[in-house]
From TrEMBL, chains A, B:
UniProt xrefs under CDD domains: HTH_LacI (cd01392), PBP1_LacI_sugar_binding-like (cd06267)
Pfam families: LacI, Peripla_BP_3
Organism, as annotated: Allosediminivita pacifica
InterPro entries: HTH_LacI, LacI/GalR-like_sensor, Lambda_DNA-bd_dom_sf, Peripla_BP_I
Protein name: LacI family transcriptional regulator
Domain (HTH lacI-type) ranges: 12-66
GO molecular function: DNA-binding transcription factor activity; transcription cis-regulatory region binding
UniProt keyword annotations, A-Z: DNA-binding, Transcription, Transcription regulation
């Protein structure tokens, strides 16, 4: 039977698989999308037939229920060494459910991001997962009306039509600054970004604003508010805003710096090294994201780990349940943890 | 006129743009795909109308000539810090021609790569650009029969149905090893990968085999063939093959090591640091790819720069001309250049 079908050149469809396995096409579909409640026996039957027949669920065939089994994933950039962890976690969950992931890179520009999301919808992807988009809640809600939408790195717990998955950036920053205070540092500054991209109510916003909140809270609790200072700098070479070198050259140097991201912290630890400023003796540094470079023994940068892979996994799970029909919003907050290394002097 | 169209809610199409600009739809299409021979006047007219009308070339509208103005880009992984440069270069050229890039991550597994390429074709992307795929030339030729195909990081100058864009890996490796020899090193080993993924004729193959060729040639030219040794190690934690630590613990240590990639070189320079092996006094190291971590002052790793952005740009240009109808193959080889830092003792 199998051979006959293939010899005649007939297309192997979900129907052929169902016939061969002796089950309904709905059952095959369930196995394909890894739906809840599929028995091991059913899965095994269907997978055996799929393998035997050489069946490949094409976009068209998969489209049965209007599905393409593909997810659009929008990243801000490729260079941020934190993002691969998020992608890996998301792909793990999507892959197990037979979804493919197509990644667009928005280059931190709202217009490029929108054009990529439009394309993902044009391609009939089943949902769009955004990481740290530059888009306002209003724009996001507009897309959420048209496609299942989940956003990582955008704090908006009041959003009703899409899900958010975040690390608790206030708690992470607070933990980092408390650790510096516990080590005896008092003059602790923070680096953040120069562009506040859009105004949002308290408790909502982009990750760096939440980290500023955590920094200020920790300083205040320790009675150090008058020593607090936030340097609003450009993200990296080529971005807008004053450079990180300003922090080292203006006035007396702080004893310690909490950086909103490893992008700043790695630049700072290298600047210090190049200028003979000893870390942590002359300057303690804590970063954020626990990127691979921070963990290199030569570098030894303390950094807050926000569990990128978990962010990706949780976001992917939220997306799958949204695709399955959930409409009540989920706003997930994960607990970060400071990874202590030499640079923070403890 | 413009306002009227928008008020009535009529869709702004390529035809509307053509009417508004007073040109043919073919001319608008030419401007949209940045075709050769478009005058500045025509481009300016059309772009003005596009902006005025708020026209967004949708997949459907763009599909006029069967085009979606999207390119599938397949990467092996997200973690390799060299790849963002390639993506940036490719996106620069594709973006200027109004093409969008959708990235799939193949996780260095042929089956995942094939499934992603299948999806890209199902989504009617206009071409597929592969970076260091795990697929054989035969499989690549199979895809090339169905879609414009350009491959980076796969040496197969005899391929007739697809283009290849590579850095000259033999020359890059040779330059790195010659520099070590010029600095007085004699016992120079190399690290490479343990898996030879498939057999290919001389002069063809994966980048690491070409770098082995360059290493061996430099050693032979200096009369050091008997001191040459290639360590075939796993790519990184989690991959197959013996770990890099083998190199430091078995027998007398070499004076210098040329690593096929910064992935190995960064691991080695950190291992040396952790064990009190001075670099370059006790062990000189040269890597490959000139990744951001290699360039950090604290790290100071010499590394061969293979101009990732140029590889991406050239590949994107090749893709555009293939989409425009070129069928004769192009096999482009770029010149790499060693970036010398502290780790190689010069």
């Amino acid at each position: 039977m199998t051979e006959k079908i293939r010899e005649t050149g007939e297309r192997v469809t979900i129907r052929t698989v169902a016939e061969d396995a002796g089950v309904s096409t709905a059952a095959v579909s369930k196995v394909l999308r890894n739906a809840y409640g599929v028995s091991d026996t059913l899965r095994s039957k269907v997978l055996t037939s799929i393998e035997k027949l050489g069946y490949r669920p094409s976009t068209a065939a998969r489209g049965m229920r209007g599905k393409t089994y593909s997810i659009g994933l929008l990243l801000t950039e490729m260079e941020n060494a934190f993002l691969p962890k998020v992608v890996r976690g998301a792909k793990e969950v999507f892959g197990a459910a037979n979804y493919q992931v197509m990644i667009g890179v928005g280059e931190a520009q709202a217009s490029i991001e929108q054009s990529l999301i439009d394309s993902m919808m044009d391609m009939r992807m089943d949902g769009v997962l955004l990481v740290a988009p530059r888009l306002t809640g209003t724009v996001l809600a507009g897309y959420a009306a048209k496609t299942p939408l989940v956003v990582i790195g955008h704090h908006e717990p009041s959003a009703e039509t899409f899900d958010t998955v975040n690390s608790d950036d206030v708690a992470g920053a607070r933990e980092a600054v408390c650790a510096l205070i516990a080590s005896g540092y008092r003059d602790i500054h923070m680096t953040s970004l120069s562009q506040r991209r859009f105004d949002m109510p308290a408790g909502e916003g982009e990750v760096f604003t939440m980290r500023e909140t955590g920094y200020l809270a920790a300083m205040q609790e320790a009675g150090l508010s008058d020593r607090a200072r936030i340097w609003r700098l450009r993200e990296r070479e080529g971005c807008e805003g004053p450079p990180l070198t300003d922090l080292l050259k203006v006035g007396p140097r702080p004893e310690a710096v909490f950086c909103w991201s490893d992008i700043h912290a790695l630049e700072l630890i290298n600047l210090a090294w190049s200028r003979g400023v000893r870390v942590p003796e002359d300057l303690a540094i804590v970063g954020y994201d626990d990127t691979p470079a921070a963990g290199m023994p030569i570098v030894g940068l303390s950094s807050v780990n926000q569990q990128g892979a978990d962010l990706g996994r949780q976001a992917a799970r939220a997306m799958l349940s949204r695709i399955e029909g959930r409409t009540t919003p989920e706003h997930i907050l994960l607990e970060p943890a400071l990874k202590t290394r030499r640079s923070s002097g403890s």
